[in-house]
Structures are given as C-alpha cells and as structure tokens.
C-alpha cells in the first residue's frame, strides 16, 4: 500500500481527499500546513506528497524547496493541487521538482489516476 502525505489547509477538502485516497487503497497521512508536513517528514517517508500551494505560513513552493534540499527526501514525487492557474505558477512548480500540477476544481478520479501513474513510474 502506497503512503501519501496530503498537505491541505482547507479541512473539508483535506478530509474528503483523504477519504477518497483511502478508498483507493492508499495510506494517507494528512497535514494542515507546510510546517506540519515538515514535522511529519521527520518520522515518515511517504511514497508521494500531494499538496496545496497557497497555504498560510508556508506555501507549497516553500515546502517543496525545504524537502528537495534534504537528501533522504529529495526523491519523493510531488503533485500540487492549486487554485493558481497561470503558466508562470505551473512552470515554477515544475522547476522546483513537482511532477504534476492540478488546477482546482478537479475531479477526484483524475487525482487518483495521476497519483497511480506517478507511483508506477
């Protein structure tokens, strides 16, 4: 069973996504902020990080930078979920090492399909 670190500050979306992922046979560890996610990463190495970009305190962009500089975490694939829609934001995400950028609103089956494809690579 693949382990997903889900980072989303909106409670309802975080809980809904966690439930959808669990129903699709993923183990989910949920965090409500980039800071909380970094704390989780001190004890757990997930197979993939699924994260919002716009969060209070630390953005997803700042979080991926912190993860990618740690040698034992740098290999973890990232998928961003965001309300940001500009090509500049998408290009920034990709340049920071993000594998995929999903724009909100999204279909849950698309997220599951993309996670599965990313983990199968």
TrEMBL record:
Q: Does the keyword Phosphoprotein apply?
A: yes
**What Pfam families would the database entry show?**
Response_reg
SUPFAM superfamilies assigned: CheY-like (SSF52172)
Q: Which UniProt keywords apply?
A: Phosphoprotein
* Chain positions found as 4-aspartylphosphate: 52
Q: Name one GO biological process term.
A: phosphorelay signal transduction system
InterPro entries tied to this protein: Bact_response_regulator (IPR050595), CheY-like_superfamily (IPR011006), Sig_transdc_resp-reg_receiver (IPR001789)
Looking at the record, the residues that make up the Response regulatory domain are: 3-119
Q: What is this protein called?
A: Response regulator
Q: What is the lineage of its organism?
A: Bacteria, Pseudomonadati, Bacteroidota, Sphingobacteriia, Sphingobacteriales
């Amino acid at each position: 069973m693949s382990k997903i670190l889900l980072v989303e500050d909106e409670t309802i979306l975080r809980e809904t996504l966690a439930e959808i992922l669990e129903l699709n046979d993923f183990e989910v560890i949920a965090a409500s902020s980039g800071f909380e996610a970094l704390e989780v990463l001190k004890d757990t190495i997930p197979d993939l990080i699924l994260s919002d970009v716009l969060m209070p305190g630390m953005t997803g962009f700042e979080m991926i930078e912190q993860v990618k500089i740690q040698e034992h975490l740098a290999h973890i694939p990232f998928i961003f979920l965001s309300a940001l829609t500009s090509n500049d934001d998408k290009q920034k995400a990709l340049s920071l090492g993000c594998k995929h950028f999903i724009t909100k609103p999204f279909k849950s089956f698309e997220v599951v399909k993309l996670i599965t494809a990313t983990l199968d690579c």
